[in-house]
Amino acid sequence: MYAFIVNPNSRSGLGLKIWEQLELILKERHIDYQIYFTRRPGHGTKLAAQICDTDADTLVVLGGDGTIGEVVNGIRDLTKLTLAYIPIGSGNDFARSMKLTKDPTKALLHILNPTDYAYINVGLLKTPQIERRYAVSSGIGFDADVCYHNNLSSKLKHFLNKCKLGKLSYTAIALHLLLTSNPKSMRITLDDQEPITFPKVYFIAAMNQRYEGGGFEFCPKADPKDDLLDIIVVSGLSKFKILCLLPTAYKGKHTKFKGIYTYQCKSAKIESVQVLPVHTDGEADLRSDTATFALEPDRIRFIRS
């Protein structure tokens, strides 16, 4: 049986309309399904946990990166469910990385008649206060601060979504915050190696997928099937240099420039001289001076097409 978790507020309220169109297909085909709507931030986690107690074997998420991030946190045993995703968010970095169709109808038909599965990793963030999974990426510093303000700027996101330019909200807010950003020294420990200290760090992100922030290809080598995290460190650059490099990140060409450091590892511990914002899948409701990134030992089966 299929269980659907739908964020009706995705894409400035279009989520509900898209679901109503897809539900017609399910009814026409006499598909056995259950429907659950998220009502508030974090609700997707509780709904996913609830679904784990039903006889559903396929969990389909309709929403953005934040919604799928909530859902993976609610799945108690990653090996017991098949996950599927219909992207209707503004950034859709998970879908972009997994090369999923943008057409909701085509996505549903693929899910109902799957031909390609992938067993994908799930990221894990640990701070002294909390432990949380993520599907796309987690980061500390400037990128988390952008996510935080992006989520607050509902009017800007709504306007850009209406213009089908939702992914630009991240860029617009990033440019604004860059002017007042104050990079801090951070120390990173990769696996069991010696710690590395970086001065003037804007952010460090641990990527399970290639894209973040509505299309920035921060870690071009990231593969959610390789049991490795891809780390990006942005350090020691002037704000003008970052402005110049920002467009190159859309194509993953930024990694060859000085001040951009990328690594692959099983785990990474970040220590900052100051408490900073931390995000998971674009949801930046955490603050910490320490963050450890790793991968869950189990993968989850995912319907690609």
Automatic annotation (TrEMBL):
GO biological process, one term: phospholipid biosynthetic process
Chain ranges of the DAGKc domain: 1-129
SMART domains membership: DAGKc
Gene Ontology MF terms: ATP binding; kinase activity
UniProt entry tagged with the keyword Nucleotide-binding: yes
Keywords annotated in UniProt: ATP-binding, Kinase, Lipid biosynthesis, Lipid metabolism, Nucleotide-binding, Phospholipid biosynthesis, Phospholipid metabolism, Transferase
Keyword Lipid biosynthesis: yes
Gene3D superfamilies tied to this protein: 2.60.200.40, Probable inorganic polyphosphate/atp-NAD kinase, domain 1
Listed InterPro entries: ATP-NAD_kinase_N, Diacylglycerol/lipid_kinase, Diacylglycerol_kinase_cat_dom, Lipid_Phosphate_FormReg, NAD/diacylglycerol_kinase_sf, YegS/DAGK_C
Family to which this protein belongs: Belongs to the diacylglycerol/lipid kinase family.
UniProt-listed PANTHER family: SPHINGOSINE KINASE, SPHINGOSINE KINASE RELATED PROTEIN
Protein known as: Diacylglycerol kinase family lipid kinase
Originating species: Dorea formicigenerans
Lineage: Bacteria, Bacillati, Bacillota, Clostridia, Lachnospirales
